[in-house]
Design brief:
Length: about 325
């Protein structure tokens, strides 16, 4: 609640002081009137007596209400109409066993999931989807504007759900397939992997050519360090992995070619900070155009105060000159 002309509220202390001053001067007269009222036929407990005692307060209350009404009490609120040219984004994430390598803390996949979840938080107006791949690929979540849903799918990504291997072409093609019917002006795939393409029946460059034809940019992210790292070497019957030092290979040339062919960009992440910086840069490069129209609305309440003040004054006039005239001084 606000006041459009709050200066009128300064009258209230003046009115209160005036009422106090006149009430003090009329104290004796009021006492005499009360004595006569007690001797009146109606008696001090009748309804006329009760109304009589309330009469001196009606005019002050009415004047205070008028002062508040002049200050124009009102409620303000704003409405925002947002028009956004959203970007459709598919996240294609590698979930092959090598993503459990421990050159990241606790492993590559855990860090990749955390950073991707933060990235989703920064895209409130876009549609995002999720594709997972190893030797095969599948759509974990189709395009959606519900950030909580896709964040939950990212959080639940696990290694071991698909056959071991790294099918970059399959992962990219699956993501592109989800974007091909999109009416969005801006469509992109963020493909994250840590290895060489060694599985799948779709060639990565063929998938990149399809993406280019459909106007889809591909940002490729290579995660992990090269050389010897602790990585899954053997899978136990219960699904857990035995770790051992392994020489990790990385095909950066393929990822560079995919990005270049689609108008995207290739990034290399050797640490969690690198990966956060990469997603932050992509976020800046692919900004959603937003138009916000703010409409301010107000609702006045002074009419109600005027009505109540008028009722108080009317009651005072009726009481002082009409019904109770016989018992007034």
């Amino acid at each position: 609640m606000t006041f459009a002309q709050p200066i009128w509220l300064l009258l209230i202390p003046f009115l209160l002081f005036s009422f106090w001053h006149f009430a003090k001067k009329a104290k004796t007269a009021s006492g005499q009137a009360a004595m006569r009222l007690s001797q009146a036929p109606e008696g001090p407990g009748t309804w006329r007596a009760r109304v009589r005692r309330a009469l001196p307060w009606l005019r002050p209350a009415a004047l205070i209400l008028l002062a508040v009404a002049m200050a124009r009490p009102q409620r303000k609120w704003q409405e925002e109409k947002i028009k956004a040219d959203a970007v459709d984004i598919m996240l294609a994430m590698d979930i092959s066993p090598s993503m459990l390598s421990r050159d990241f803390d606790p492993d590559r996949l855990a860090v990749a999931k955390t950073v991707a979840i933060h990235f989703v938080d920064k895209r409130p107006y876009d549609r995002l989807g999720l594709t997972a791949f190893s030797a095969e690929a599948f759509t974990q979540c189709p395009l959606t504007t519900d950030r909580r849903v896709i964040q939950e799918f990212i959080k639940n990504l696990q290694v071991g759900r698909l056959e071991d291997g790294t099918a970059i072409g399959m992962g990219l093609a699956t993501a592109v397939n989800r974007l091909k019917d999109s009416a969005s002006k801006s469509k992109l795939v963020i493909l994250l992997t840590d290895g060489e393409n060694n599985a799948g029946y779709i060639d990565p460059m063929q998938a990149a050519e399809i993406a280019h034809t459909l106007g889809i940019r591909v940002y490729t992210v290579g995660i992990g360090t090269e050389g010897v790292v602790m990585s899954p070497a053997q899978r136990n019957p219960d699904g857990s992995y035995i770790y051992a030092p392994r020489e990790m290979m990385f095909d950066t040339q393929l990822l560079e070619e995919i990005a270049r062919a689609t108008g995207g960009k290739f990034y290399r992440a050797y640490s969690e900070d690198d990966l956060e910086g990469i997603y932050a840069e992509i976020d800046k490069l692919e900004k959603t155009r937003i138009e916000v129209t703010t409409i301010q609305r107000t609702k006045d309440f002074f009419q109600w105060l005027l009505a109540i003040a008028a009722v108080f004054l009317l009651l005072e006039l009726l009481g002082r000159w009409g019904l109770l005239r016989s018992i007034l001084p």
